[in-house]
Design goal:
This protein has about 190 residues and is an alpha/beta fold. The protein contains four helices and nine strands, in the order E-H-E-H-E-E-E-H-E-H-E-E-E. The structure holds inosinic acid.
Length: about 190
């Protein structure tokens, strides 16, 4: 990740197979928005976006929900600049809104081992929300969604490391409009 970046994303050999197209993402997020609009009818949920990976998902999801939602951001770190989790979750930025008696929806990019989610759930539940649900764009097939209490999931995907639509490697590729498999050439 130290070499100069390719001048165009089109020329970047590390962007592998497209796993989810822009259209698939748009359609599924619209569905999730409709479902949340129904489930939270008459309420004003607080969307808690887990930075940084979920920021693109959050902007599309929030605009698909026809309710007076509020938004806040929390940031955790477990990956550093690599594709492997360090196994330790660190709070990097806390919320500004008080969660007491709020209907909170935690908006995550991907549930992989579930380590991040377990940490966040513990931290947020301790603040006395009226309810706490999780809405993840992606979940690994291997993730124990029931055990982790994840109610809303956009797509279940296999184990490949993925980039785009907010997800990064070393802060790159978040601006891809689709989700692709990360395939660094010298990783073969
Ligand atoms: P977990 O704690 O193992 O569930 O990992 C969750 C976090 O790891 C996500 O919020 C992402 O930031 C990051 N992550 C896991 N898999 C990927 C991936 O394939 N691409 C990009 N980030 C990932």
């Amino acid at each position: 990740m130290t070499d100069a970046p390719p001048t165009s994303l089109d020329d970047d050999p590390s962007i592998g197979r497209v796993l989810l197209s822009e259209e698939q993402l748009v359609n599924r997020i619209a569905e999730l928005g409709r479902q949340l609009t129904q489930d939270y009818a008459g309420r004003a949920p607080l969307l808690v976006c887990v930075l940084r990976g979920a920021y693109v998902f959050l902007t599309d999801l929030a605009r698909s929900i026809d309710l007076p939602v509020e938004i806040d951001f929390i940031a955790v770190s477990s990956y550093g600049a690599t594709t492997r989790t360090s196994g330790v979750v660190r709070l990097v930025k806390d919320l500004e809104v008080d969660l007491t008696d709020r209907d909170v929806i935690l908006v995550e990019d991907i549930v992989d081992t579930g380590l991040t989610l377990r940490y966040l759930r513990r931290s947020l539940e301790a603040r006395g929300p009226a309810s706490l649900e999780v809405c993840a764009l992606l979940a690994r097939e291997s993730a124990d969604l029931e055990g982790l209490g994840v109610r809303y999931v956009g797509f279940t995907i296999p184990g490949d490391f993925v980039i785009g639509y907010g997800l990064d490697v070393g802060e790159r590729y978040r601006n891809l409009r689709y989700l692709a498999v990360y395939e660094p050439p010298d990783d073969a």
